[in-house]
């Protein structure tokens, strides 16, 4: 039960953060009207909008102000080191899912990254592995299911946990057990680490909010779905624009 609560706390970042597509961020000429060309399976939109408003309100009056305060008082190099540290803790999830997807080279990279960053990078505070040419992967169990042909199903907005699909929502449970949090026995360090991780993720995406325009729900839904397809297919998607 406690591990599930921890998963919910850590998942606050998903409710507040924007899962942007790399292709959109790279295109300075992109306009919000282009979203009309993306088909989003959203049969439960009425419910999803209500949950989105709840999550957005929680972010606006709780998480976002904390993230702004953290950004204001913490030097940029320190914030980068914090992100590196939590990224290093997430290598286990990448490793497990790369093995399940039979991406053995990427699994080797995950292992090497964790070993080098934990030792030479002082517990991951410094990302020495990237400087060695070992780039970080970003895998989860939802992507693993997609790799083996499981369809995404309808889009669904989860309270606190944010955007998901019928395929990806149950995948959050095994993902939770591939992180370090369920195995920390003491409550204070476990919840403290989870909260710090959430704030760090939220702070890193504050500047991305400038891209939002028009219907915020539609914008973020389609951004998340496009990014999700991009990740499941390892970037092998057709550009419809």
UniProtKB/TrEMBL annotation:
PROSITE patterns: PROKAR_LIPOPROTEIN
Record GO biological process: intermembrane phospholipid transfer
Keywords: Lipoprotein, Signal
A cellular component annotation (GO) from this entry: membrane
Keyword Manganese: no
Signal peptide coordinates: 1-26
Top-rank taxon: Bacteria
Family per record: Belongs to the MlaA family.
PANTHER family: INTERMEMBRANE PHOSPHOLIPID TRANSPORT SYSTEM LIPOPROTEIN MLAA (PTHR30035:SF3), LIPOPROTEIN VACJ-RELATED (PTHR30035)
Name used for this protein in its record: Phospholipid-binding lipoprotein MlaA
Organism this protein belongs to: Thiopseudomonas denitrificans
